[in-house]
Amino acid sequence: MTGLAGVYQQQMKTSFAAMLQYRAALVIWLISQVLDPVIYLIVWSTVTAASGGEVGGYTRGDFAAYFLVLMLVNNITYSWIMHEYEYRVREGTLSAALLRPVHPIHADIADNLSSKMISTPMMLAVAVGLGFVFRPTVHLVPWALAAFVPAVALAFVLRFLIEWTLALAAFWTTRVSALNQTYYVALLFLSGQVAPLALFPGFVQAIGLALPFRWMISFPVELLLGNLTPAQALIGFAAQVAWIAIGLVLVRLAWRAGVRQYSAVGA
After folding, report:
1. Mean of the pLDDT values across residues 127-155?
2. What pLDDT, on a 0 to 100 scale, did the predictor assign at position 72?
3. pLDDT at 267 over 50
4. Where are the chain's structural domains?
5. Which bin fits 56, alpha (ψ -120 to 50), beta or left (φ > 0)?
6. In whole angstroms, how far apart are CA 108 and each of 24, 79, 80, 103, 241?
7. What's the mean pLDDT when you consider all of the chain?
8. What pTM did the predictor assign?
9. What span, in angstroms and rounded, lies between the C-alpha atoms of 220 and 236?
10. Cβ 76 vs Cβ 159: under 8 Å
């Protein structure tokens, strides 16, 4: 464990330095992370105003709070790994990683954690600024505020494991854009990014309960905003832990099968 901690420390230092070298790209990426929630917020604010000030129990201030918190949670849980593996396999750059004594997943985790260290303070500043514009209605509950921290941490782990597993499809096909797009469409609707899941029909909410998407993003958002009871929060944590266990098994199986399949296309 001490050796692995050292690996993380060095990898995060390297990743941190590399990201600072590409500040313009970082700013562009942050803008893209802000645009979608703000667009959805404007749309739902307009719908709310046209519907007498409330839609499905949500006021304009409630929508503002929801999408601003969602923006932060999405930033914390987001990973770019599904876009990386196709290039690594196609160009053969994965070969060098396979020669190292540490599993490649640790380098990807360190890269993601480094990006959060840079992007999260910036996103918090943006959220505060947008808060003055959209005036969110926030009702913080002390126990929910405390539970939010482990909830968003588990959401990051869950989302990373699922997306890392799907990224390994590049071992079998070097064109994974169709799979990525299918995943992101499902994530968009079933994780509550388009609208709070409470506004969707009952069967969609049932699907959201059964699949991991809600537990990646919507659950921490709902928890922080005080929309869940303690019993519902416990169910959410149980679902996160269960899906993380499934994700660990899937990563292990997919990695073993993928490495046996791997051939360095670009090498």
Report:
1. 93
2. 95
3. no
4. 2-261
5. left
6. 22, 9, 9, 10, 21
7. 87
8. 0.90
9. 9
10. no
